[in-house]
Write a structure and sequence with these properties.
It is built from 26 helices and 19 strands. It is α+β, with helices and mostly antiparallel strands and 629 residues long. Helix 10 packs across helix 18. The strands form 4 sheets. It has a 6-stranded antiparallel beta sheet. It has a 6-stranded antiparallel beta sheet with strand order 4-5-6-7-11-12, with helices on one face. Strands 15-14-13-16-17 form a 5-stranded parallel beta sheet, with helices on both faces.
């Protein structure tokens, strides 16, 4: 696991400065504290920071082919690199190291851009092909590893994180106002956008090549949801094989590894498989809270006891909020997901014992696990059984009238959230319950200038992009999961896990997102994922016997924190400072009077504006660090 960066000038006579490459590498030292490597070849400079996982002694990068004509810097892990190595050696390639990185170099020599399709893993890499004078950049199918690219008339600058790109002294930091709109609506920024107009994310499953001042790009992996005929027993057998094999592959390491254990279905299954196929006692790591409705440690303890793991726990105290500035600095661009706190803290705890940890991310998106899937299914009955005048003039006002409770969910909070989501277009599917800025709030929040700039913007454009003609014939469960996978998972969940684990110099591996499992999940009949209001049907039927009774019968929780109460207490001073009226007015993006109204209503306990207040706070803090230049 590493961080990569680099520069290519379009004028072949301009040579990157060594100090610049070193500065870019230092900005991402947390991604790779073990080693640094740089190389400058004419108008191209490549750099990397390394967290040593495989081939500890000879895996130094950049790595070249036999003729020193192809050079690579690589971030990630290739789980099938041994089989690729054998194939390439049979074709005459000579390897100098045992690293998975070198398999990509020789694979590029042999197969060119098609090497990406050969790889099973998580990756982002840059290859400088001297003979063809081409810079080749690629990202894994699911976008587990990040890659940002900046281009102007003079240069291409890239990095695993935006902060590396910003080390170049000549970067246009103009904000992308539509990205800001997306962020405040969904709490994340969808690819290919970033918060900066001229910085783009390379989309998952894509490569891009710069050659002779011409840009070539291709989507090398195209997930095609389809339903195939399969019995329940066949599906169970296939899923068991795929997930077991995925876990086996991700246990390959030259350093200690463990697992994040929430006590939910996904992480509990992973720990059970690790215990069955691994040769050592599994190390597990869990986070808890003092607030009872947020604390899930009893479930994690039940799994740890059943599989005799070496279990470790950490209780989050409100003083963890001292981390706020550190974590926002790690994000590079605004991300409004509260769970950056527990994700970072469990990663920091795990790093004391291991260098690699397996994570259960992806199970909800693949197998319809979120409560929002249930909400979407229930909405059809809500519309068909309850007349519009009752919904609009009785239920909706009543939901608005009810004050929020302190519980994580609870009947009142769930009811309010459901009614709020039904006011949005049905074409958004379950994304209706994953928005945090209503149309009315948008009109009141944005300044007049920002409203004019966004007058013709589609606030849900990227959601609609994945609700298009090629999936129009899909059932609701598959279509909803397809949207989820391509938006929320990639640009929120995986971003959070990557940044927070890397902030602790820990590698996080995600077995559920092996592309074979993803393809399998999107070939299943919908009733094997969701039947009635029961979710993750196939996971439960396949692994039910692996779970403790307490885990079998628990409800869906989610990895969150009691942010609504923290804002009223521990975060109050920071919120007051960052959302100060004079600062908001001077900045010019928001209506200071409306922001003040949000603060006052939340502090008084009349309404729960925690999502919007936190998102605004994160943006203001980020803007102070990065946006101003």
């Amino acid at each position: 696991m590493c961080g990569i960066c680099g520069v290519m000038y379009k004028d072949s006579t301009v040579r990157p400065a060594e100090d610049l490459l070193n500065s870019m590498c230092r900005s991402i030292v947390h991604r790779g504290p073990d080693d640094q490597g740089t190389i400058i070849i004419n108008n191209v400079g490549l750099g990397m920071r390394r967290l040593s996982i495989i081939d500890l002694s000879t895996g130094h990068q950049p790595i070249a082919n036999e003729r020193n004509s192809v050079f690579i810097v690589f971030n990630g892990e290739i789980y099938n690199h041994n089989s690729i190595r054998k194939e390439l050696e049979s074709l005459g390639h000579v390897f100098k190291t045992k690293s998975d990185t070198e398999a990509i170099v020789h694979g590029y020599e042999e197969w060119g851009v098609n090497v990406c399709s050969k790889l099973n893993g998580m990756f982002a890499f840059a290859i400088w092909d001297m003979e063809n004078r081409a810079l080749f950049l690629a990202r894994d199918r699911m976008g587990i590893k990040p890659l940002y690219i900046y281009e102007d008339n003079e240069k291409i600058v890239f990095g695993s994180e935006i902060k590396a790109i910003l080390k170049h002294p000549d970067i246009d930091r103009t904000l992308d106002e539509q990205a800001l709109n997306n962020y405040l609506t969904f709490e994340y920024i969808p690819a290919p956008r970033s918060i900066f107009k001229k910085v783009k994310k390379l989309r998952p499953g894509h490569w891009i090549k710069y050659k002779n001042n011409t840009v070539y790009s291709e989507k090398y992996w195209n997930l095609q949801p389809h339903e195939k005929n399969i019995t329940l027993d066949q599906a169970k057998e296939k899923l068991y094989y795929l997930l077991t094999d995925s876990v086996k592959l991700r246990l390959l390491s030259d350093v200690p590894l463990g697992a994040f254990l929430s006590g939910g279905l996904d992480s509990s299954i992973l720990v059970s498989l690790m215990a069955s196929v691994g040769s050592e006692q599994v190390k597990t790591f869990s986070i808890g809270f003092k607030e009872s409705s947020y604390n899930e440690l009893k479930y994690a303890r039940a799994v740890a006891k059943k599989y005799n793991t070496d279990h470790h726990e950490f209780i989050i105290e409100p003083n963890a909020l001292d981390l706020t500035e550190k974590l926002i600095r790690q994000l590079d661009e605004p991300l409004g997901d509260f769970s950056i706190f527990p994700t970072y803290l469990v990663s920091k705890m795990a790093k004391e014992y291991v260098t690699v940890s397996l994570s259960g991310d992806g199970g909800d998106e693949l197998f319809a696990g979120y409560d929002t899937y249930r909400a979407h299914a229930f909405a059809e009955k809500y519309y068909s059984h309850i007349p519009g005048f009752i919904r609009n003039y009785a239920i909706s006002p009543f939901a608005d009238f009810l004050p929020p409770t302190k519980k994580k969910k609870g009947a009142i909070n769930s009811f309010k959230r459901f009614v709020q989501g039904t006011k949005l277009p049905a074409s958004l599917y379950h994304a209706r319950w994953m928005t945090f800025l209503s149309e009315n709030e948008r009109r009141n929040l944005f300044s007049k200038d920002l409203q004019i700039s966004l007058a013709h913007a589609d606030n849900y454009d990227f959601i609609r992009r994945f609700n298009c003609s090629n999936v129009e014939n899909l059932d609701d469960v598959t279509r909803t999961g397809f949207i989820d996978l391509n938006t929320y998972l990639i640009d929120n969940i995986l971003v959070k896990v990557d940044r927070m684990s890397m902030a602790a110099s820990l590698e996080a591996r995600v077995p559920y997102l092996d592309h074979r499992i993803v393809e399998f999940a999107f070939s299943l009949p919908p009733e094997l994922k969701m039947k009635g209001f029961s979710t993750k049907v196939i996971l439960k039927k396949t692994f039910w016997e692996n779970l403790p009774d307490t885990v079998k019968h628990r409800g869906k929780q989610g990895f969150s924190i009691p942010i609504k109460s923290w804002i009223r207490n521990e975060l109050k001073d920071m919120i007051t400072d960052l959302l100060d009226t004079s600062k908001i007015n001077q900045q010019g993006y928001f209506n200071a009077g409306f922001v003040e109204k949000l603060k006052n209503e939340h502090m008084a306990g009349k309404k729960n504006h925690s999502h919007l207040l936190w998102a605004l706070m994160v943006f203001q803090k980020w803007y102070n660090i990065y946006g101003k230049g």
